[in-house]
């Protein structure tokens, strides 16, 4: 099973699309603007979306993905997220005012979007593995996700400030090889990061000590004005042996 990075930025503007990871061919983690890079047949192959939270850079293309299925008679999609996140989608995206409400059942068919609530610890079966909802601490209710493939596992923090429960969970996964972690700001913006529920290198570094040897840490969601500084700071503060790199669109993670 492979994970293809379609978007990993905090904002749009080349280079950069907002968060969206493709798992195999039928699952997305988040549905930011990176989803728009998929071809028609790839859009119609998407059957489920695992949401981290309801901010627009992580879910904004859900209505257009649903529209692609509706216009081409695709199979439709299931969207998994916290109950609070799904309520926000109903109120602000799927409300029939800005776009058709694809969560409602057409006259002769099922809805194109099914909203499926999950809680921390719930597992979602995938074709070649399993995705488990993990705790996160953000400015709105949020999740991380653990994706376990046939041989390896990848964890995604979602947008989150320090969340010891997330790190305790993922550090106990024997097959863990990769962690994608939001680090939006450099340490010069520590107070802003704490106010918004984001990471900086100095907030993240103490949480990394128990990661498995030779794990890969991928930094995502970097603010454009901080990208170079935060990667330099993270490289200095990370535990020895930990591979640290910026997550980029087009990257592949094999599980």
Automatic annotation (TrEMBL):
Residues 17-221 form the Metallo-beta-lactamase domain. GO terms for molecular function: 3',5'-cyclic-AMP phosphodiesterase activity. It holds the Pfam family Lactamase_B_2. One of its GO terms (biological process) is cAMP catabolic process. SUPFAM superfamilies: Metallo-hydrolase/oxidoreductase. Gene3D superfamilies: Ribonuclease Z/Hydroxyacylglutathione hydrolase-like. InterPro entries: Metallo-B-lactamas, Pdiesterase2, RibonucZ/Hydroxyglut_hydro. This is 3',5'-cyclic-nucleotide phosphodiesterase.
């Amino acid at each position: 099973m492979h994970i293809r990075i379609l978007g990993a930025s905090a904002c749009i503007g080349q280079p950069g699309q907002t968060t969206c990871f493709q798992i195999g061919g039928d699952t997305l983690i988040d549905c930011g603007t990176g989803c728009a890079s998929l071809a028609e047949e790839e859009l119609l192959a998407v059957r489920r979306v695992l949401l981290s939270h309801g901010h627009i850079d992580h879910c904004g293309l859900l209505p257009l993905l649903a529209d692609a299925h509706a216009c081409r008679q695709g199979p439709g999609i299931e969207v998994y997220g916290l109950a609070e996140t799904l309520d926000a989608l109903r109120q602000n995206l799927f409300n029939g005012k800005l776009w058709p409400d694809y969560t409602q059942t057409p006259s002769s068919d099922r809805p194109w979007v099914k909203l499926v609530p999950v809680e921390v610890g719930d597992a979602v079966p995938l074709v070649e593995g399993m995705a488990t909802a993990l705790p996160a601490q953000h400015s709105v209710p949020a999740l991380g996700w653990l994706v376990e493939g046939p041989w390896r596992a990848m964890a995604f923090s979602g947008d989150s400030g320090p969340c010891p429960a997330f790190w305790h969970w993922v550090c106990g996964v024997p097959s863990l090889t990769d962690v994608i972690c939001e680090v939006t700001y450099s340490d010069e913006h520590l107070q802003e990061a704490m106010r918004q529920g984001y990471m900086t290198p100095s907030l993240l570094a103490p949480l990394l000590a128990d990661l498995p040897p030779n794990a890969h840490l991928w930094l995502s969601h970097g603010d454009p004005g901080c990208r170079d500084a935060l990667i330099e700071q993270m490289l200095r503060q990370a535990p020895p042996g930990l591979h640290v790199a910026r997550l980029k669109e087009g990257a592949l993670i094999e599980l």
